[in-house]
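Input sequence (429 aa), recorded before submission:
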Amino acid sequence: MPLHRLIVPVAAVAAAATLALLAGSAHADSAPGSAIAAKKPVTPKTVVLDGSRLARTRDQVRHVPALRRDLDALTAQADAWLTEGPWSVTDKPQVAPSGDRHDYLSEAPYWWPSQPKTADNPWGCPYVQKDGVRNPAIDEITDHAERGEMFTAVYTLTLAWYYTGRAAYAERAALDLRTWFVDPATRMNPRLTYTQFIPCKVDGRGIGIIDFSQQFTDILDATAILDLGAPTWTRADHDAMRSWYADFLTWLRTSPNGIEEAAAANNHGSFYDMQNAALALATGQRDLARQIVEDAEVKRLDVQLAADGSQPNEISRTRSWHYSTFNLVALTRLAAVGEHAGVNLWTYRTPQGGGLATSIDYLLPVASGAAAWPHPELEFSRYAASDIVHAAADHGDRAARKAVPLLEAPPGGDLWPLRPAVEQLDPIG
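Predicted structure, token format:
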């Protein structure tokens, strides 16, 4: 995680001395896009990832065996993405209610038809909610799945280029980005008006904004890295992406769906604030980013984090482990954005005595395999907590540091040393 004031080394994923060497940072001072220059600097102006830490890791990656193994795993994933995509919202067979194929469209994952589908009732309406139980029919609309694949591909390819210098990785990432966001024939409109619609009920919902906010900061960081002078990535590409980001942020802050999502008290509100703060930082609005993070202290942490570390809004869900880790993904990533903007959420204590570290510590017995999760969970994945534990360890949490060697690695391997930013690692609807 980005660390700007004080860094405590991560304990033992590889050798402790190696990770201590990689810890710590200061945010890059270059203006957005200025990295596209003859000197080709290596410190990107990222908004979640710590650019200085990435640069130090880049210097070490070929000489430290543990990092070399991580790089092999990363490049294997990137190699697989070289032949996938590019993706576009225009791929889907359906059209949003607007009639514009460039509008993103997705269906609510936990809503199901209650009646047989007939010619007179093709959707099987009315729909009923089954919390945590995913309706597979939503995959008939391809935007949600293709969006996820594109985000993951771009992030993986860009990091692989950064650490190896292989042009093919950057060129493919650039193609994927242009196809989804820039090219007039295939670009997505910068709005989420028709996300997570419910048949026969509503055309789109504010709650659907999480389709993007759960992972969109990966795209912001990827373009910041490509701005360092990646092959085929141009000033025009940078400007087009920044314009898309600015339009999207305006929509998020002014649209009915955005205003609705801002009012959410649970993980949706956390992800909304995190995405907005990151977009503000990526578009040069540092004061706005700082204000969003500062406001989240009272608006999010005070409301969501109990004194014992539990998260009442999340443990009441049928997938309480998933949503407890999920909300902390948003809050720890918001803390990373805050560090770039000059706010330290890690030291903030709620009036009840809670805080980020306390809520992560609440998960440690389960994350380390020492205890069973005491709340309802339909689909338990222990590794869902791995990144947030890494983040807490980086920020000086001694209990988290002791838990790091006991974490369950996600299916793609533990790549924290190469991308020290909190992701959501278990499947989500």
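Checked by second reader. The domain at 16-406 is CATH 1.50.10.100 (Glycosyltransferase).
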